[in-house]
Design a protein that fits this description.
alpha/beta, 11-stranded mixed β-sheet, about 280 residues, globular, 11 strands, TIM Barrel
Length: about 280
């Protein structure tokens, strides 16, 4: 006898729901981002920092009503926003939960924190529900995407998705305290031995998105598990400096940077079904 498969329209496993303080400053602010970490992912990155929950199913099984309650609870604790981490496989459930929580009084922004391997049609369903998009743009080349994430078409899919996100919300808009309430930040994690990928990603952003686009150039890569070389080490200062220099040479002015000390597993939360 086969077990019935979980319907992603009806429920999702949530590994953690709590205030999170390690996002970009406009997202985390002073009171934290109300992060909801979903189990499961539509990619297979060998370097995933959240491997425990991206490639296995952990956490509490929640339906639309329970997910809505979690959002409202995180707002009541003072979170600046609701931060949906790895939402893609659960987008239809999230859509229903947002509508429900808004009808019950949720008033803070919704952040869609995604790897960008998204279908534009699904993103269009979310228009008007998502206030802030926080997409990764991991690779420019097919070779790297296939080697490290088993998704040779990643750039084709992700670039189209990011253009749709930008169409919906535009450039980042913050209040007088510097806290984001609408817009987009495009993230790129600089990987060891992959400065050319960073340059390619930055070139595309420069060519295809407005000059005031906010970029998060991350140095936080930490080897998890047993990734292949050169991903078995942290990035070097000269690698990050070269990527940052290229961003500056393209004229970007809204760049969030990181110190190399951010490359630590201590910034990855424990996924122990903690619900604040």
């Amino acid at each position: 006898m086969q077990l019935a498969r979980r319907d992603p329209y009806v429920s999702a496993h949530i590994a953690r729901a709590a205030r999170h303080y390690y996002e970009e400053p406009p997202i985390s602010g002073t009171r934290g981002s109300g992060a909801i970490f979903f189990s499961g992912c539509n990619m297979a990155c060998v370097f995933c920092q959240n491997y425990d929950i991206s490639q296995s199913i952990k956490g509490r099984l929640c339906d639309e009503s329970e997910l809505s309650e979690i959002m409202l609870r995180l707002e009541s604790l003072g979170s600046h926003n609701i931060n949906l981490v790895t939402p893609s496989p659960h987008a239809r459930l999230i859509e229903k939960a947002i509508l429900r929580s808004r009808s019950e009084g949720l008033s803070i922004p919704i952040v869609y924190n995604t790897n960008s391997y998204e279908k534009p049609d699904q993103l269009k369903r979310l228009e008007g529900l998502i206030d802030i998009y926080l997409p990764d743009l991991k690779y420019r080349s097919t070779i790297a995407a296939k080697k490290y994430s088993e998704r040779g078409d990643y750039f084709t899919v992700a670039s189209e998705a990011i253009l749709e996100m930008n169409r919906q919300v535009g450039a980042l808009d913050c209040d007088t305290d510097g806290i984001a309430h609408r817009g987009m930040i495009v993230r790129h994690l600089v990987l060891p031995g992959s400065v050319d990928e960073a340059r390619g990603v930055l070139d595309w952003i420069s060519e295809m998105l407005p000059s005031d686009t906010h970029i998060s150039l991350m140095s936080q890569y930490t080897p998890m598990g047993a990734p292949p070389k050169p991903l078995d080490r942290r990035i070097l200062k000269r690698e990050y400096d070269r990527a940052l220099s290229h961003a500056l040479s393209l004229g970007f002015v809204n760049i969030y940077t990181q110190k190399l000390s951010s490359a630590s597993s201590s910034y990855t939360p424990e996924f122990n079904e903690y619900f604040e």
